[in-house]
Design brief:
- It contains 10 helices and 19 strands.
- With 383 residues, the chain is an alpha/beta fold.
- It binds pyridoxal-5'-phosphate.
């Protein structure tokens, strides 16, 4: 087969979908589309179990694209600002009788959407993002997103929404990235793992209390929420225990990229990857492939590099890594590789892989059973 190509192993994807559905307990799962980036894969996961309800998308244009494909209950996980995109989306959702929810964390966000909603006479649904990070002396544990860390800050925003004829508070979200997205079982890092687990335990208690306080305040103001969204792949064990939470957002667990190999509480199966071609041999114990350097986003570090996966035992060279056009690999003895052979890699993150490939070969058993277009393959590039 012409290389490079990307694939999704449907047997492993289905096993992950099923394991995630079980791990959800009695909560619903909202799928984080940024970690999937293929309409057909999204459909397959949603169709696999009734626990899968709604999508967390990542831009307004992506939400409009998913609407066109027939998806409903789309929560845009991050604030958006472009006026024409917001107006177009409001109109498309109303015309199709679908639910779109915009993320907000300030009165400025609320008033911006209110103005656009009022201009076209459509009520807009919003979700209030509550910061779930933890600040300890010398350490910010979590992400920098919403400025709302307590009910006292959320209250004026909720009151402003209640006054508005054009805005409805549909839900709240709190993403505890320090629990959901930080590995705590990294090989050879015994002390660091122990500290992270300790910080996670402390943070889990604080997150639950903060969410509880906000929910209590909202209830006192007489607002009934449709959903309370929490977590990510790495926080299912704690998010599902919170009484107030109605749904958990999951994305990465479905393809299960390498960054999700190092958690104490779970291990999903490596369902997606890509293959590049060996084009030369710089030394008898090395091969060099054409391309392969698809780095993941986030703080720069070796953990963001893709990892050679099959055949087993190959390693990147620390001085070159995975390259734009050439990726040399050290081969273990006993592995015979020829020019033209494929080397399979796994990406460090989930959906970013799909930005590099127009399609995923869908494999079941030993057979390619379908070809699933990625967003890129549909000519789309949202972020
Ligand atoms: C707001 C939000 N919720 C949930 C998630 C969890 O996604 P995943 O399961 O891919 O880690 C993310 C990922 O970054 C996110 O930004």
């Amino acid at each position: 087969m012409p290389k490079p190509f990307a694939y999704v192993n449907l047997d492993l994807l289905d096993a992950n979908s099923s394991a995630i559905a079980t791990a959800a307990g009695n909560k619903r799962i909202r799928i984080a589309s940024k970690s999937i980036r293929s309409v057909e894969v999204l459909r397959r996961i949603i169709g696999s179990h009734e626990v899968y309800q709604g999508v967390m998308c990542y831009t307004a244009r992506e939400a409009a694209f998913l609407l066109k494909h027939g998806f409903d209950d789309l929560l845009i996980g991050y604030p958006v600002w472009d006026k024409s995109e917001i107006s177009n989306l409001l109109q498309a959702a109303a015309a199709n009788g679908r639910i779109i929810v915009f993320m907000i964390d300030s009165i400025q966000h609320v008033e911006h959407i209110e103005q656009l909603a009022a201009a076209i006479g459509i009520e807009a649904f919003v979700c209030l993002d509550i910061d779930m990070s933890a600040s300890y002396p010398g350490l910010h544990f979590g992400v920098r997103r919403s400025p709302i860390t307590a009910w006292a800050q959320a209250k004026p925003i909720v009151e402003r929404i209640i006054q508005s004829k054009w805005i409805r508070l549909d839900g709240i979200m709190g993403y505890e990235a320090q629990i959901a997205g930080v590995a705590d079982d990294t090989k050879g890092q015994f002390l660091k793992n122990a500290i992270i687990r300790q910080l996670k335990r402390k943070s889990i208690r604080e997150v639950a209390m903060r969410r509880e306080e906000v929910l209590e305040g909202i209830k006192e103001l007489g607002v009934q929420l449709r959903f309370v969204n929490a977590g990510g792949t790495g926080s299912m064990d704690s998010s599902r225990l919170e009484r107030g939470v109605t749904e958990i957002t999951i994305g990465s667990g479905f393809y299960s990229p390498t960054l999700f190999d190092h958690y104490e509480g779970f291990r999903y199966l490596p369902a997606a990857g890509y293959a590049v071609e060996i084009v030369r041999k710089p030394r008898s114990d090395m091969v060099t492939c054409l391309g392969g350097g698809y780095m993941a986003s986030g703080a720069v570090g070796a953990d963001k590099a893709p990892q050679p996966y099959l055949p087993e035992g190959l390693t990147l060279l620390s001085l070159e890594g995975a390259g734009e056009v050439q990726t040399p690999l050290r081969c273990p003895s006993g592995v015979a590789l020829a020019l033209g052979d494929p080397i399979f890699f796994r990406h460090a993150k989930a959906g970013e892989l799909c930005e590099r490939f127009p399609k995923l070969y869908a494999i079941s058993g030993e057979t390619i059973v379908a070809e699933y277009l990625t967003y890129r393959g549909e000519g789309e590039c949202f972020l």
